[in-house]
Amino acid sequence: MIARKNTSFIGIMYFAGHHLIWLGLYMGLITVLYKVAGWTKLSIPWLPVSLIGTAVAFYLGFKSSQSYDRTWEARKIWGAIVNSSRSWGSLVNAYISNSNQTPAEIHAIKSRLIYRHIGWLYTLREQLLVPTPWEHVSLKGQFGKVNVQRREKFGVGLFTDYLTERQKRRYFADVEQLNGAVNKATQIIRIQAQDLAAQEENGNLAVLKHIEMQKILNCFYDEQGKAERIKRFPFPRQYANMSFIFTCIFIFLLPFGIVGEFAKLGGFSVWLTIPVGMLAGWIYIVMELVGDYSENPFEGLSTDIPMLSMCRTIEIDLLQMLGETEIPAPIQAKHDILL
Amino acid sequence: MIARKNTSFIGIMYFAGHHLIWLGLYMGLITVLYKVAGWTKLSIPWLPVSLIGTAVAFYLGFKSSQSYDRTWEARKIWGAIVNSSRSWGSLVNAYISNSNQTPAEIHAIKSRLIYRHIGWLYTLREQLLVPTPWEHVSLKGQFGKVNVQRREKFGVGLFTDYLTERQKRRYFADVEQLNGAVNKATQIIRIQAQDLAAQEENGNLAVLKHIEMQKILNCFYDEQGKAERIKRFPFPRQYANMSFIFTCIFIFLLPFGIVGEFAKLGGFSVWLTIPVGMLAGWIYIVMELVGDYSENPFEGLSTDIPMLSMCRTIEIDLLQMLGETEIPAPIQAKHDILL
Amino acid sequence: MIARKNTSFIGIMYFAGHHLIWLGLYMGLITVLYKVAGWTKLSIPWLPVSLIGTAVAFYLGFKSSQSYDRTWEARKIWGAIVNSSRSWGSLVNAYISNSNQTPAEIHAIKSRLIYRHIGWLYTLREQLLVPTPWEHVSLKGQFGKVNVQRREKFGVGLFTDYLTERQKRRYFADVEQLNGAVNKATQIIRIQAQDLAAQEENGNLAVLKHIEMQKILNCFYDEQGKAERIKRFPFPRQYANMSFIFTCIFIFLLPFGIVGEFAKLGGFSVWLTIPVGMLAGWIYIVMELVGDYSENPFEGLSTDIPMLSMCRTIEIDLLQMLGETEIPAPIQAKHDILL
Amino acid sequence: MIARKNTSFIGIMYFAGHHLIWLGLYMGLITVLYKVAGWTKLSIPWLPVSLIGTAVAFYLGFKSSQSYDRTWEARKIWGAIVNSSRSWGSLVNAYISNSNQTPAEIHAIKSRLIYRHIGWLYTLREQLLVPTPWEHVSLKGQFGKVNVQRREKFGVGLFTDYLTERQKRRYFADVEQLNGAVNKATQIIRIQAQDLAAQEENGNLAVLKHIEMQKILNCFYDEQGKAERIKRFPFPRQYANMSFIFTCIFIFLLPFGIVGEFAKLGGFSVWLTIPVGMLAGWIYIVMELVGDYSENPFEGLSTDIPMLSMCRTIEIDLLQMLGETEIPAPIQAKHDILL
Amino acid sequence: MIARKNTSFIGIMYFAGHHLIWLGLYMGLITVLYKVAGWTKLSIPWLPVSLIGTAVAFYLGFKSSQSYDRTWEARKIWGAIVNSSRSWGSLVNAYISNSNQTPAEIHAIKSRLIYRHIGWLYTLREQLLVPTPWEHVSLKGQFGKVNVQRREKFGVGLFTDYLTERQKRRYFADVEQLNGAVNKATQIIRIQAQDLAAQEENGNLAVLKHIEMQKILNCFYDEQGKAERIKRFPFPRQYANMSFIFTCIFIFLLPFGIVGEFAKLGGFSVWLTIPVGMLAGWIYIVMELVGDYSENPFEGLSTDIPMLSMCRTIEIDLLQMLGETEIPAPIQAKHDILL
Predict the structure, then answer these.
(1) Domain residues of chain B, as ranges?
(2) What does the pLDDT look like over E136-163, one tens digit per residue?
(3) 3-state secondary structure C251-285
(4) In the beta sheet, which residues pair with residue D337?
(5) Is the dihedral of CA C199, C201, C207, C213 positive or negative?
(6) C-beta atoms of B190 and A261 within 8 A
(7) Is the ipTM of this complex over 0.90?
(8) Cα distances (Å, whole numbers) of residue C102 to B32, C106, C204
(9) B272 at the C interface (CB within 8 A)?
(10) How close E258 gets to chain D, by Cα (Å)?
(11) Considering only CA atoms, which of C201, A245, C178 is closest in space to residue E6?
């Protein structure tokens, strides 16, 4: 998540400036061929290009809008995790009780249920950050390398040591039970469910309250599954690719369509094909790019939703519900990026 | 929330009139260069500018629509808080009962549960009004200063003394328990949950009804978390910034694209570039601005949703449910602004 | 709600015909100045006007779509009230029972719970019809007066005596308890909740069933609150006003943009500026108007959702559930308007 | 529901071919006046017509999209009825039991509850097919007559004898209780609710399970009410009519706008105004028509959702849950239409 | 589901390359007639073609967007199945218990409930893959044949032996009870419901927990019904067909509209009609095609949602919940296609 109102000029150039280079070269090439080499036959009428431009802009608008929806849904899912986690903490506090047990014993049970939940949060986050084949860091060659670097420099790489050894010991106490689990987060919730059943059997949890707490666990399954849906089911590639190809076709035709119009103005004006073509093409490319990066909100890049920060927020709230006083600090944005 | 049908001309000029100034200067400059200085080579063909204008209008439409959704969702969330609060009051009244206790004792418990809830409402509102880095009041330099002034003069500054000392005493009775709480609202609900558990233990609340009331508390966590989602996760800056930059590019190209067309009409007509360019550019800027202000509905500005007014509405309804007769007055709009 | 497929020509003229007058005068004025007075410098190129027209059409489309959503959501809310009311009647019938009481006593309780609910419906409707500052009937001067007349003649004024004295006596039996209530509907539901609690205490309602019936009451709070949200939170004025202003700017520029084009056709053709300009301008104004009237679905005008008719539908269904045979007639459309 | 991938050419001509006739006559008339009668002053510039065309296309897109949503929501509602009906069957089977009664007695109760539910389904369908004033079959004159014929020939008329006498006897066993009921479906559910209450009293249904089954009945009320919402609240006529009128205005202007452009090409070309104008106008009319027919999904025409087929699907599933072996056949599409 | 970021050039040509052939032939034909045969009267003005192109692009955008929604909803439904299945496994583990039975007996019950659920998953998938009349594989002639081949080569044909005999024996243990069932999946859930009822009777399941587990079964009915809704109710053919026909009309008019414009540029340029017309037409066709393939997400083709892969994911998670160690491998993408 980018955490400042306006990106600086440098930020924009870093994000999409390099596209100006090849756009400039391409626009320049066509203009040179037209003007210097005199291949005036390169020109085509503007009007069909304009229609293609309009149709492609529709399609890009559709892609932008759907990609935005994916990011926003991802944020909603994690928001729901925040909310249910607070309910979880609140229920653990209010529902677990037994006058036959010492307060310390009860507190130990409560802590275990809450620590294990925090462990689930961090586990889920780690699972969601494993790259899939269609994410930017998985691209071949130079494109992938740049994105791996970005991931290091402006993405998850910024936040590596977010848990101390003591935190890890507490939150992942039953890690050995999870060896071999294909989906660790799923099995953690299953352990929670069995722990609740054990508490009911021990008389620490009334059956009605047990059922309510199990419902919250089911909510966690729902939210986990929803996040995995966004992670594992890409924006359908038939749409995403075609949008990219249409943009390429439009930019390919663009200089042919405008060079003649500029040439009509006479003299020097034909050279204005280059900057105007660059700007028009760049707008289309950036529309495409913004959609492209926003469609995968769990990539580990700066356009991700801030999972780590939300994990920490929940951790703090839950620890304070337990009455603990040694509270970790909230995650701060680094270089205006919050993850 | 602006609470009148039509904004006056002055209101519009106050909101966006100053943009006409630099638009006029810029359009004027290009026209002067073209006409007076005779740099007729400044002209570019209209058609690519028109295509850019169409594509940018799409993008602005997308931004407008998403910003509207953020404002509307914020209002829905607070509407849900209103509804659940009424249910809360109704349940407190209907479910807390014990024939072994005096009516006064029961009334005291009911009052406490309801007062604390009102305290939660005002606390949540205060928390949502803390500025984030991407809000207008956090902008650097002149832009931020103007918005801080607006916040004072037409925003939250209009409504400062909304709670009397007596109200504060009642609603924030357990304030000392919240010292050090990172998120006070979260912990207030936790206290409510523990109070309910205590009522069950004391025999004032049947277990089934306890569970129902706890569910309402979980709803409050949900709504609080949803409001925090909108507050803390901005409209993704990659979209918002690009929309701004595209508008700038379009306005930059605009006079070059039209000055030649106007010049063709001959004589004086070229000077019409200035007012027409101003109007066209202003429409784009205002579309961008309206989206920009609506995307953050908890900024403390006049386009906010009316949180204070809703807190008061709930407060009145709940106090009347308790049978109280000394009821505060509803919040009235000031200068046609209701907060 | 307009209850016929096609509005007659007269209906349309009544709704928006008067706008043709000033459009005609304005288009005529510019044409006369251009052609008769010879101010041919009034002409501006069509292309930037066209771009503004496209951008404004986007914005109007957005406004239309959001206004439609407000109307449709209002209808959904009242639909949900219908559904929950039927469930209420069904639960009252099935859940209230006590072998220690006479059928007549039980029937009296059932009737009371259902009559009071019908009272709530009509009360909610009345509350939703109180004008807000941004509704058409609150406009100053001639505009407001026309709308007050319309409200009388084609709106709520058509349906004044919809409840007989006997109905009022039955449905508003506890009206004296509501004196001083700021929001009467809210307090009626609260009375219902206390009545249910009393029934549980008297042994007429099992605790589990009590909880279910209370949930239905909470649904009524939800639906009431949602309707109030639409009533009290206008379509954000920053959007609505700007849409209006953009339309004005477009229509202002329109004749300047087309008069030259028509003049090129020579001779008489320039006068066609007037009808064509009128039609084009009228389309934009009507798009704006339709949105403007649809955004407030509880205004008491013909574009409202048919609250009265739905209240009566519920009333009939509930009375028939009670086994009553003296049933009021459904509300019929008058002048093709159903309210 | 049309149940084939591509409509044949004949199907399209049947649906909208007749519009080509008057379009051809109108385009022909203008062209003849222009070319043969030499009224070249009839021509108007293309550009404002084009802008109107774009704005109208937006509006038609909006109407198409909302009409689609109405059809799709109708299908969702009936889909929800399918799902809840299966749950109903499953609960009847699993929850009704009493070791004090013979299996035959229990089976009779189960059958009654399920048969009555099937009766509700068919009743609801019948109620939804009663024409409203704004549906096509209610149009005056020729338009209405054609649609009544279509209803007979390609709509509900295709499926008249869908229930045998034996089925009717079973499913409508308590028909005499419904005499005088304004809304029969509503009262059937009420009878089901009373039957459940009786089963609880007789010891055939635990109270907790009774409450769960009553919740399913409430779902049926919800889905019935949602279907009635779509049936009884038309696509707001202010939107639908204006879309129609805008289309008329556009088509009225169309030949004036293009005849001059074609004439410029010289000679024979002016006559191409007719086919091109017909095609362009026809596209707009068909967009309007498709929306117009899709907005009312319970009209009894071929664009309806397949209610009968879904009723039968549920019937089959429920009968098989009861263990019956004499199962009616699924409804098959006739002439590629499934109702 | 296509599981790679960018489709290769060959992939695109395979998907839609053949359309370039007839587009080229058609564009070529018109150009030859115009240039070689000298039928210059074939030309029509570009502007009405452009308007049609814009209107058609709107309609295609609408179709694309709705088709995307169908695919995405299908994925959401299966995602919900994943989530509820995990809850099912978790509840089976936590709720089934009886101190009077041996662990092995309890484990056998748990296994049966989970195996039968896995059987339901695979059964539902098979049912959803049965072709409907409006799917691509049902097309007549060459079109259908190509799609049947694609289904074999890049679709479900890739994944035939996904269950071993041992798995089948376990998951379909009660297959003989399903003989004659019209909808097997529906009846499997009914068997589960009866099994739960039996467990309650045997004292292995408390009544409250029984009710919760039954609710999960109802969820499966909901999700199954939603998937069947998408499968059995096509994208309304009136919309889908018209979008196809409009595209045809546009492409039919396209070369007539542009050939004259290119000819104006003189000499060789007229031949550029062919590639530019091909590109423009191809963009429209591909927009139409992408929508066309995405509207049916259960066709067995590469654009399907990955049902098999999700079935396996659930299977693995559930088996690990049972503590089994012999776990099948996840489904891998083949040729970048995951089903």
Answers:
(1) 9-321
(2) 888 887 878 888 888 887 777 766 778 8
(3) HHHHHHHHHHHHHHCCHHHHHHHHHHHHHHHHHHH
(4) D2, D334
(5) positive
(6) no
(7) yes
(8) 95, 6, 11
(9) yes
(10) 13
(11) A245
